[in-house]
Amino acid sequence: MSRGTDAGARCDVVVVGGGAAGMMCAAVAGQRGRRVVLVEHARRIGEKIRISGGGRCNFTNVSTGPAHYVGLDPGFAAHALREYTPRDFTALLRRHRIGFHEKHRGQLFCDDSAVAVVDMLRAECERGGVRWLHPCRVHELRPGVGGFELDTDAGTLACARVVVATGGLPVPAIGASDWALRLARGLGLRVQPPHPALVPLRLADADLRPLASLAGVSVAVRASCGAQDFDEDLLFTHRGISGPATLQISNYWEAGRELRIDLTAGKDLAALLRESSRGSRQSLLSLLAQFLPRRLAQVWLERQRLDGSRRAAEVAGATLQELARSLCAWTPQVTQTEGWNKAEVMRGGVATAELDPRSLQALRVPGLHFIGEAVDITGWLGGYNFQWAWASAQAAARAL
Ligand SMILES: Cc1cc2nc3c(=O)[nH]c(=O)nc-3n(C[C@H](O)[C@H](O)[C@H](O)COP(=O)(O)OP(=O)(O)OC[C@H]3O[C@@H](n4cnc5c(N)ncnc54)[C@H](O)[C@@H]3O)c2cc1C
Predict the structure, then answer these.
(1) Is there an atom of ligand 1 within 6 Å of 98 CB?
(2) Going residue by residue through the chain (400 aa), what tens digit of pLDDT does each one get?
């Protein structure tokens, strides 16, 4: 796809970033008759699509709505999400004969490889006559005659409009950059501070040490932070916690906020233990292992300094009550996230208050649009981030 272009020539639109949002936007703008140049600095285009969803790309979620997003004003996303829906994207996939299936809670995945989605977007760009500058770095963007001038490794581009689709900071090794955020700040636009999100969390030593042997164990939990909770699986790791429950709640966690984990996923464990222990001949460990993975039950009893071999029926009601409470209201101390290398998305970005929700155009810099992950709209785990990339790209493209 790498294709040289006469960088000095004028075009209508320059899209910076050949990822999910950038390719979608360039393709649609091109198909609407705009002369589009797409600039991508990484060696491979659409690399996050390729590695997403375990190589099968969870490209959307059938139930997408603003409630599945975080940011200072998630309602900002409503217009774009309404105008370009999961059905629109699946219709595009069907036109390209790409098979897909629903996995879990509305999550749609490719039947085969995520590469099919990259190839589809590439083909759509081709249909729109999009010209690529790739690999090519962008440097300074300046207001120019009738629009903007953009310095790149391949020379200066002059254009009427620029779409910034350079994504967020996760996984710097495959091309992530803070270009959008630096550009926005340089232009005096507000930026919500970026944080790693959909990311595993590290726990304080005091919480981690008693659970060290649980690395690799998964358990259904209810994870809560503030008013938000998720019923999903949690995975213990060598440094803390991961798995869908952790990734989901990480969108809401920040330093100083309490994380609450109900390791019984909402069961009334106190009542269950009380009833099941009555007249029972089984050990406390066997009793608890009816409701939790056995390894977790064992380690938790040790953590609580309880003898798992005791007959459950002989354990005092108050002790069972306290055991249940400790499991239902675990509040481990999170020290930090696993950072940009492990995060799936960036929370924060160009403030939505600076943008028009219909066109993603900067209100104070006409002709400049920000789309995709660079904007302060962050989706839950489950295909919501790609749906925002497609929808915001379409909204901008319709306005170009
Ligand atoms: C491991 C992983 C798995 C994921 N799985 C899923 C999933 O299954 N479902 C889901 O919805 N979301 C998933 N995501 C999130 C999803 O990939 C992103 O939200 C989405 O790709 C954002 O699209 P974007 O176009 O805004 O940014 P990107 O897709 O990141 O594209 C940005 C592009 O801009 C380029 N770029 C950056 N800076 C510059 C510059 N200065 N000049 C030129 N080019 C530049 C980058 O190289 C990149 O190609 C996953 C993310 C990761 C890291």
Answers:
(1) no
(2) 334 444 556 899 999 999 999 999 999 999 999 999 999 999 999 999 999 999 999 999 999 999 999 999 999 999 999 999 999 999 999 999 999 999 989 999 999 999 999 999 999 999 999 999 999 999 999 988 889 999 999 999 999 999 999 999 999 999 899 999 999 999 999 999 999 999 999 999 999 999 999 999 999 999 999 999 999 999 999 999 999 999 999 999 999 999 999 999 999 999 999 999 998 899 999 999 999 999 999 999 999 999 999 999 999 999 999 999 999 999 999 999 999 999 999 999 999 999 999 999 999 999 999 999 999 999 999 999 999 999 999 999 999 9
Q: How far is the CA of 20 from the centre of ligand 1 (A)?
A: 6
The CA distance from 314 to 300, in Å, is 19
CATH class of 200-338: mainly beta
Report the atom number in ligand 1 closest to the C-alpha of 171.
53
Mutate to test the pocket of ligand 1, among 52, 64, 164 (most ligand atoms within 8 A of CB): 52
Does pTM surpass 0.90? yes
- How far away, in angstroms, is 388 Cα from ligand 1 center? 11
The domain locations on the chain are 10-196+345-399, 200-338
* Fold observed for domain 10-196+345-399: FAD/NAD(P)-binding domain (3.50.50)
Those residues whose C-beta lies under 8 Å from the C-beta of residue 132, and which sit 6 or more positions away, are 1, 2, 3, 5, 18, 37, 38, 39, 40, 125
For residue 32, count CB atoms less than 10 angstroms from its CB and return exposed for 0-12, middle for 13-18, buried for 19 or more: middle
Cα 285 to ligand 1 centroid, rounded to whole Å: 46
Using the atom order of ligand 1, give the atom closest to the CA of residue 393. Answer: 25
238 vs 28, 210, 260, 302, 329, CA distance in Å? 45, 12, 20, 18, 22
